[in-house]
Amino acid sequence: MPVRPIIRFPDPLLKTACAPVTVFDDGLRNLTIDLLDTMRAAPGVGITAAHVGVLQRVTVIELSLEDGVRTYINPEITWFSEETMRHVEGSVSMPGITDEVVRPRAIRFRYQDITGETHDAAAEDFLAVCIQHEVDQLNGQFWLQRLSKLKRDRLVKKWEKARD
User: Fold this and answer.
1) Would the pTM count as exceeding 0.85?
2) Percentage of residues in the chain with pLDDT exceeding 70?
3) Computed over its alpha carbons, how large is the radius of gyration of the chain?
């Protein structure tokens, strides 16, 4: 499947909440395959449909080849742990820019698979961070919004300078 162009920060689509998926068909399946190919080419470990300009609640995560590909349709976090962890995050829409973000260490979440079947699952550590990061993006919250204004401004300046 084709690698799709990734929209770049500060495109307003990255601040737009995505609509729930209601049709589970070959078009959705093809989108998830394109997302995986696009994410691998970027490279990255997670991508949402919003990253390629499709405002639907679809995300694909692949932490490693051994862990395999995880596809989440309409994911919603239902519980967060009080315990937090720090992890360096970035985005395929802002390559080369990273910083440490504090997030809950463990989550529970609900999602649908590619056929529309609903699942409840739990995640912790790196997978939990990745799911939270991608759900934020599906909600229209770019990862920089998790940082202090000072850090955010510094990274935006670094990004703008790198693009010149």
Assistant:
1) yes
2) 99
3) 15
